[in-house]
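Tutorial, part two.
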Amino acid sequence: MSEVKWTAEQRAAIEARGHTLLVSAAAGSGKTAVLVQRILERVLDEKNPCDVSDFLVVTFTRAAASEMREKMTKAIYEEMGRRPKNRRLERQLALMPSAAFETIDGFYYSLVREFAGKLGISPAARIAPEAELTLLYESVRDELLEEYYEKADSDFLQAVDYFSGSRDDRRFLEVVDQLRRLTSANPQREDFLKRQVKLYESPPPFGQTPYGRALLETAALRIEYAQKLLKEAMEDAAEEPVLKQKYLPALADYGQTLELLQKAVQGGDFDGAAGLLAAFAPPRFAPAAKADEAVKKQVSARRDLVKKQLVKLKEKCFFLTSEDACRDAVALSGALRGLCGFTLELERRFGAAKNERRILDFSDLSHLLYGLLVESVQDGRVTPTDTAREISKRYREILIDEYQDTNELQDFIFRAIAQQESNLFFVGDAKQSIYLFRQAEPRIFVEKRRTFAPLSSEGTACRQLTLSKNFRSRRTVVEFVNAVFSQVMSERLGGLSYEGEALSFGAPYDTAQDVPVELRLLTGEAQQEKPQEEQESFDEAENVARLVQELLSCALVTEKDGTRRRARKQDIVILLRSVKDEAPLLEKALTQHGVAVYSDTPEAFFSRPEVLLLMSLLECIDNPLQDVALAAVLRSPLYGLSSDELAQIRLGLEGQPFYDAVRAAADSLPAAALFLEQLGRWRELAKREPVEKLLYTVLEETGLMAVVASMPMGELRCENVRQLLSYAAEYESTGYRGLFRFNRYLEGLKRSGRDLPAARLSADSDMVRIMSIHKSKGLEFPIVIVCGLSKARNKTDLRQRFVLNGEVGVGLKLRDMQRLVEFDTLQRAGVVCRNEREALAEELRCLYVAMTRAKERLLLVVDTRKRGLSRLDPVLLDEGHIHPVQLLDASSLGEVLLLAMQATDAGRAVREHYGLPECKVCRHMPCQVYVERGDGFTPAQQESTPCAAPQAAQTPPIFEGWAPRPESGAERLPSKLTVTRLKDMLRPGQDLDTPAGERVSAYRLQKTGFRRPSFVAQQQEATPAEAGTAMHELVQFAYLRGLADDPCTEIDYLVERGFLSQRQKGLISIDMVKTFTQSGLFARMLDAKWLRRELKFTVLARAGDLLPGLTGGQQEEKLLLQGVIDCIYEGDEGIVLVDYKTDRVRQAQVLVQRYQSQLQLYAHAYFQMTGRRVAKAVIYSLSLGCEAEVPLHRQ
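Running the prediction step on this input gives:
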């Protein structure tokens, strides 16, 4: 094996001794290799040798701990190869099985068992499975609930009434569970909850509370943002003489108000700020008719943004006085007291029940060890107990991986067992901390990063260094990530600045083969076959599926030995922020396009057909009177009843349970009789046998495993069935019994969102993977597609009646129980402001993790049609950073990305699409923007500005290096062509002596225009093209017989359903419609055996069949051909292809000459898709009202 070449920073991290060291290791920086090498060199240190058993190495997952142990073992073996018969190395190898390479939970559990006597628990205490803990918790909770109802405690009843109302107590119990979870990592949970109650019972002056400070902090940011906006507006107005006279006075009034607000906020004068906002009346601009319209519009837009910030200040921060806040707190104190009292008592009872059964959960381990090892914590300094000091003598060094994901409880424990906090080695990356929902606290890492001295400093016990070199990704990916996050990641937003954290390129790639990052913008009109939001998600899935096909046809990836090969499906991953709604659409779209795909989503377990079927069957065995479950089982492949047969069963015995109807129909339906016979046996078996054995019997008698194995991805589906069997066995091992309880347990998991992991895909399976960003952490992929970026940021938690922040406290809404209305409180507003900032910082870190998974290709998809992305404000840069308030107000990560694109050379397409001005600052970003306009993606023109990349970082043309045989000239061919573009390239008059590759290159350089925005279109006269489009869409979407009978009614219906706009309705010629419906073509279409409209296709075609003039290997290259056939039907003359044209011509033959190549390609594509030849191709001219046949030469 070749010697590893360590960077200077890596070598420093390996060799540092004698102090605590914090290593901030960027994505792909080789931190695991550094950690292993550090241990190895300490073991081999001749002056101060150690054994591997002298180290405690801790990480978060079993897989990571196992990987660390394997790499350490491998490193020892490799060193033994260089130093044969070395006794020290042989000793280390012998010690490895007992060396402490642990997960945090595993290490904690070993200490708890060791010191069980001191902790007052049984040495035989075990970690209980989730099923057992859930059932025990629900049992204890329900018993305590009944007890509290019997006591009729006033605070408890007030809390139940407040959270759940008069219906039931379910919502109250959900809040109890939420409060337990959110405080589980607090070392002083009881004291924390008691402090919250006291803040409500006896509230101090509001400005001195954590809530008030959080609101004032947010207000200061918004005021600063408004002032910067106002400054830009005033500068622009001052340069235009008319606006200087007419607009500046009003802008000055805004400035004076903002200055007064700023003074009030800085002085903590809460009521003063509220009074200013209550009295403020926005000044109006004087008329400025002769002013420059562009400048006028720009100044007005910025004034409106300032006004919006003042409104938000009033609505979010200063909507009540401090006196109102105190009054609200007292009014809510009883409900909060009841909630906290019940939660603390439930925690005590649950702990006693677990102790009685000699079981523990993972949260118990941390709290038990905190009590055992931490004497006290004063001003951040940890005083260890004698037990902790004894434990600290065991380890020469404690190495903690992924330290950014620790919480306060874990941090205190590790510091307690360190030798006066002098032998800790922390490794992590705060930019990759994405487990806020698991109570991870990245601020701990960030604070150490801020306070620890650089490694080069002398005389300090705690030091830090950064590993910034990325050995994973191509230069274009690294530069793109830096260009985005240097703008959006700042200390004022999430406590972490990207300065000093930027990646540097270090991977061994040939930079001449680099391809820019791709941003795919969806801008076309949704087809409105479904509700708008659903249709937009469907369109995005379809575009991603086509993108995957394109990548599989032309993208190249690099092997470890440096050779290049065509991309395989397993090289591609699709990453989503949330997989619950998006993954099924993507999976369906990819499957329809013939691409094998797997959703690596634990949340999908209960949605798998085989799992749903077994759950329905178990419900029927427990209680056959459940109609939905019974119908699902009978309709399944096990019994195969059709929908008509189920309807006949239902109608055969109306008004009675469906089960009785099935029994009545059993004589005439053998499948129903078989089911009833088996059901009887299984119900008897369920009374005496465990659920696991019952499931085995069901599988054996129905042959379900064989049925499942025959389905697509059969092995994975079989594994899901086996996992359900293992969960049943685990459930029975808890001591709980019975099918009813098991069904209830599964239903509870499904309802609460807690899920069981589905079967995993093996590493060598050639499938495209869909996974959440969280699941992708720690992994890497040659090609990464990030989509779902346009989905609105999830603010559901911020809208809840109950909110909590570990630093700020508890926030509640005020309820008027008589009028059944709710009012926000300043306490809740303070918590929401802090949570909103923390949530956005987490979202940005998720985006960072997603982007840095890519090794060679990174592609991002943003749907600009989504709500919140229909408009975009000009970016406001503050010392190179986008102002935090502009990011806070962004509706989605997609908007954040588009804001970051504005001030770059790659952002020209973004600015043009939204009609934004040029930015004063323009930095380089290696990104190619593609704009989707209905017939596929088109590359937008790149900026040609002085800010172009330096020579060393210039990127080659987008398709360069993709072709598998460069020597054949294939690199000059595109990977994909639409029929429309290909028709333009082959139109009559085109110089066919020009090589096809050059014609493609020339096409790429043509300027592409953007569609006219709707708000402009409504104000201008219609163009002939718009009138033609309206007619074209009418004949595509109309019900043909309805169009013939009453065209006006049909047009009104299409407008009502959103297929046509009111503007388009006015452009349609009724005479033209009637001519079409009276034509011979229309009559043949009505009489057709079958007819399809808007038939989209994507096929791989031989380049030589599409582009004449190709030579050699170019002819055999495969090109991705995309298009949409207007209409195709089968009549007496065979299959007929119809294309509608709205061109204004005098003779139909002109259209034949103009579009013959296009229809030839349509026929060729249809033959490739179906194997059936098109007998006839017809152009119907809507303007001439006649048809013309197009000769077809080849298919």
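The radius of gyration is 34 Å. In part three we will examine how such features are distributed along the chain.
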